Amino acid sequence: MAIIPATRTENIEYAIRDIVVLAQKYDNVLYLNIGDPNKSDFHTPKHMIDAVVDAMAKNFNGYAPAEGILEAREAIVADGRKKNIPCTVDDVIITTGVSEAIELALSALVNPGENFLTPNPGYPLYTALVSKLGTELNPYELSENNGWQPDLDSIRKAINDKTRAIIVINPNNPTGSVCDAQILKGILDLAGEHELVVFADEIYDKLVFHEKHTPLAALAGDVPVITFNGLSKSYLVPGWRMGWMMFHNPNGLISDYIDGIKKLVRARLCANHPLQYAIKPALLGQQDHLTKTVDKLRTRGEYTEQRLNAIPGLSCNHINGAFYAFPTIELAHFKFETDKDFVISLLEEEQVLCVHGSGFGRSSAFRIVFLPPMDVLKQAYDRLEEFCIRHYKA
Hints:
The chain is α/β, with parallel strands linked by helices. The protein is built from 13 helices and 15 strands. The protein has helices at 15-18, 20-23, 46-57, 70-82, 97-107, 124-133, 152-158, 181-194, 255-267, 279-284, 288-309, 339-350, 374-391, and strands at residues 30-31, 92-96, 115-120, 136-143, 149-150, 163-169, 197-201, 225-230, 242-248, 314-315, 324-325, 328-329, 352-353, 355-356, 366-369. A hairpin with a 5-residue loop joins strand 4 and strand 5.
C-alpha cells in the first residue's frame, strides 16, 4: 500500500526551483532564474570566511544559545541603530536564514483559518507557508502603474476579522521596487487601526541603486513590527543560511507573542553555531564589497531595463533594488496562452531560463535575475529578443 502524504503538501509550489527540472535536459542553458550571487562573479568577503574558520578552530562547533550568540546579536543591534531601528539584544533572534525566521514568526501567530496579507506579486515562500500552516491566502496588490508600490486601498480591502499580519517585502522580490516612505507610513496606519503586526522582509536593504531605503521599523512608532534580515544577499553567503528577526515591541504589545516565538526557537535548538561568528565582522567590519556589488548591480539593472523595454511585447518598470526585473508580457501579441507557456518555450527554443510570473502570484509576467556578468546578460537578452520577434504578432 502506498503511503499518502499529508494534505498540507498538496498546494506547495516553489516555482524558482521547480522550473530548473525542465532545464536539466538542455545544454548551454543561461540561468536567469535564481538569486544566488555566488554562482556569478560575486565572492564572499575574506574577513567573514576567516572569522568562521577561526571559530571552528576554536571549537565553537557545539550548540549555540537558542537565540544566537551575544556578539552577533549585539552587532545586529548596532547595525539596526544605524538605520534608526530601536532595539536591544533581547529583541534579536538568529535563525537558519530569513526563511526560518519567517516560518517561526508566522507559526507562532496565525491559527488555521486565519490569514496574513501577502504582496502580489511576492515571494513564493509565503504562499507555501499558507498551505503548511493551514491558513488562508490573502494577497494585496502591488500597483504596476505605480512602480510596483503597495496599493493601500487593496490592503485596506483585504483586511478582515481573521487577519493577523501584513507582509511587506522591501526591496521587493520579484519586482526590484523600493517602497516609498509615505506608502510605508500608510501601511503602518492601517496596521495600527486594525491591531496587526507588520512583517518587514528587508533582506535586500543594502542593495539599493537609485533611492534611499527606509526601514519600516524606523517609522513604526506604536505599531509592532518584526524586521527580517540576514547575510545571504548583501554579504554574498546565501548558502550559509544566516538570518535573523528583530522585534519592535512598543509598550509590550507583542511580548506574549514573542514568548511564543522563543518557545519554538528553543525547540529547534539553534542556528549554525560557527557561522554566527561571521555576523559581527560582516555588519561592523569592512564594507568595501558592498560598494562594488551595488555598482555592478546598478549597471546590470540599468542595462536589463533598457534591453527589456526595447523588445516587442515586453515592458519593464524601473528597477530600484535587489537584482530582479519583472517584465510584463503582452500575451495578446503572442501565441502563448500563459506566462508559463512563454517561459517554457523560451527555454526550449533559446535555452534561457527565467521564472514565470504566476509563480509569484502575477500572470502575464516573468522574473529575470540579472546577477550574471554583462556578456552573459547580453547573450541572454539577444536570445530573448530573437524569441520575441519570432513570435510577436501585431
